[in-house]
Amino acid sequence: MKKSVLTRYRVMAYVTAVMLLILCGCMVAKYGFDTGADLTFVVSQTHGVLFMIYLAFALDLSSKAKWSFGRMLWVMVSGTIPGAAFFVERKVRADVEPLITDGGLAPAKA
């Protein structure tokens, strides 16, 4: 697997997680303090688009790393929980880095 597959996933995991935290703050401002409705709309739409890109990159990584459906689902769902993507990204990076080679998927160890 190429390193770029993991890098794309990692970047989108961080971006999506940060945008979700910002969205949570906007939602508190909108519903708790009745302010920032326009900002909340913009942030929610931006987060939605970025989340779809995150899902595509997570699917690409999971197919190349040959994960089970459950693991793929776990990684995708982590993008919906504020802050969870930060922790899941570290675990994914640690598990996938040994599979990275220049020419493709690393051979399995005996």
Automatic annotation (TrEMBL):
<keyword id="KW-0812">Transmembrane</keyword>
<feature type="transmembrane region" description="Helical">
    <location>
        <begin position="39"/>
        <end position="57"/>
    </location>
</feature>
<keyword id="KW-1133">Transmembrane helix</keyword>
<feature type="transmembrane region" description="Helical">
    <location>
        <begin position="69"/>
        <end position="88"/>
    </location>
</feature>
<protein>
    <recommendedName>
        <fullName>DUF3817 domain-containing protein</fullName>
    </recommendedName>
</protein>
<keyword id="KW-0472">Membrane</keyword>
<dbReference type="Pfam" id="PF12823">
    <property type="entry name" value="DUF3817"/>
</dbReference>
<feature type="domain" description="DUF3817">
    <location>
        <begin position="6"/>
        <end position="93"/>
    </location>
</feature>
<feature type="transmembrane region" description="Helical">
    <location>
        <begin position="12"/>
        <end position="33"/>
    </location>
</feature>
<dbReference type="InterPro" id="IPR023845">
    <property type="entry name" value="DUF3817_TM"/>
</dbReference>
<keyword id="KW-1003">Cell membrane</keyword>
<dbReference type="GO" id="GO:0005886">
    <property type="term" value="C:plasma membrane"/>
</dbReference>
